[in-house]
Amino acid sequence: MQHDSEQLDELIVRLSDLAGQRDALLAQLQGVEALQDGQGFDVFERLIHALPHGVQLTGLTFEAARLNASGLAPSSATVARLLRNLEAVPGLHGSELQDVTASGAGVAFQLRVGVQLSDSASGP
């Protein structure tokens, strides 16, 4: 009887994990669909215009209306300027610096920014 209860508990945990994975996949699918509709291209174009001179993006992922970016900048002041620029871009909001590390090539950073995927976001 206890063995059956343990198996049932394990099954419940597994189903909960699968539901979480399903929700994450649905969020990613919505992001991909928005990108396919052409909305994402506009966001990426605006992002490019927000990059200060010398900033190089080394990674870019889109997940659940959040853009995760990593890159290199000449200085921490340039990273701060990037964050200010992102806040001024229509359709982007809530930029958060996740990590900053000094490296031989300058400053490595990771950040997240919210993306409004709708036609109501006007261009630059």
UniProtKB/TrEMBL annotation:
InterPro entries membership: PilN
Superkingdom of the organism of origin: Bacteria
Protein name: PilN domain-containing protein
Organism listed in the record: Pseudomonas laurentiana
